[in-house]
Design goal:
Blueprint lengths: L1 E12 L2 E8 L2 E8 L12 E10 L7 E12 L17 H6 L1 H4 L3 H23 L13
Parallel strand pairs: 3-5
Antiparallel strand pairs: 1-2, 1-4, 2-3, 4-5
Length: 141
């Protein structure tokens, strides 16, 4: 299987490394053994992983990828704040100035997904009930 995504986290434990790979659909654990065990990659780098899917009871998904090849597509520079913690520890100004990065945080992304679903459902309801959507350059009170 070929996977591509962002490195969420990497842990090195002796002769094995665990790489958490994130894309827009979720996170999967990739196991790096033998010559890949000490693979150096920065968090948020974009990588592609070629490997095989194996069943395991050690992950929430019940599967992990046993990596045969890992390649960095685009390395990441250090981030202005940590995005892999449970809660973002950053001020509002920086959060808004670095919105592209803050949207990679699970909770922030979830808020935007819920909002999108609500707006889409509301829009569909109005369309089904013969409302007309108007795009006006000016709203007058």
């Amino acid at each position: 299987v070929l996977l591509q995504g962002w490195v969420k986290k990497i842990r090195h434990l002796g002769n094995v490394s665990f790489l958490l790979l994130r894309d827009r659909t979720g996170v999967i654990q990739c196991v790096l053994e033998n010559e890949l065990a000490g693979y150096k990659v920065d968090v948020e780098s974009v990588v592609h992983v070629i490997g095989e899917i194996v069943e395991t009871s050690k992950t929430e998904l019940g599967v992990e990828v046993l990596a045969h090849e890992v390649k960095v597509i685009n390395g990441a520079e250090p981030l202005p704040f940590e995005i892999n913690k449970k809660k973002l520890q950053v001020g509002l100004d920086q959060l808004l100035n670095e919105r592209v990065i803050s949207l990679r945080h699970e909770r922030t992304a979830a808020i935007f997904k819920v909002k999108s679903t609500l707006v889409q459902s509301f829009s569909e309801f109005l369309i089904e009930n013969d409302f007309t959507r108007i795009f006006t350059p000016k709203i007058v009170s």
